[in-house]
Amino acid sequence: MSKLVKSEDQWRQDLSPEEFRILRQKGTERAFTGKYEGYKGAGTFVCAGCGQALFDAATKYNSGSGWPSFYQPLQDSAVEEHADTTHGMRRVEVTCSNCGGHLGHVFPDGPRPTGLRYCINSASLNLDEKK
């Protein structure tokens, strides 16, 4: 499968400033400020950069972290994981497997059945309530 490739100028044109900062510059939004942090409805969360389906809303839960949290991606192939040692921490970064956009991080302190917490920035997501 070929990945979506765009120049930084193309990304700047296609994304809002906040989406660009998070998806392309590996930023984060402040806790409890994202539009999907408290969302409890149905649907599929897709990448704000390319539209790839990432997470089913049925796997979203309230982790208390201040960011939308999911216990598993829609498919394992939807996301990629990378070691992240920035800011003096050891974490696992999660990116969209199609466009490489930064989504957030995954931690081993989630609920069953996976025990994982995908802690994802709202600005890296769009909600498709039809899927």
Describe the structure.
The strands form 2 sheets. A 6-stranded antiparallel β-sheet has the order 3-4-8-7-6-5, with no helix packed on it. Helix content is 11%, strand content 29%. It is built from 2 helices and 9 strands, in the order ααβββββββββ. A hairpin with a 5-residue loop joins strand 6 (91-96) and strand 7 (102-107). With 131 residues, it is mainly β. The chain has one domain: Peptide methionine sulfoxide reductase (Metal Binding Protein, Guanine Nucleotide Exchange Factor, Chain A, Beta Complex).
Topology:
Blueprint: H1 8-14, H2 17-23, E1 44-47, E2 53-56, E3 60-61, E4 69-70, E5 79-84, E6 91-96, E7 102-107, E8 117-120, E9 125-128
Antiparallel strand pairs: 1-2, 1-9, 3-4, 4-8, 5-6, 6-7, 7-8
Written as H for each helix and E for each strand, in order along the chain, the element string is: HHEEEEEEEEE
Query: Sheet with the most strands?
Result: 6 strands, antiparallel
**How many DSSP-defined strands?**
9
Kindly report the CATH topology: Metal Binding Protein, Guanine Nucleotide Exchange Factor, Chain A
Number of H- or I-type helical stretches: 2
- What is the CATH class? Mainly Beta
Low-confidence stretches: none
Give me the secondary-structure category: mainly beta
Q: What is the total domain count? A: 1
CATH superfamily: Peptide methionine sulfoxide reductase
Cα end-to-end separation: 22 Å
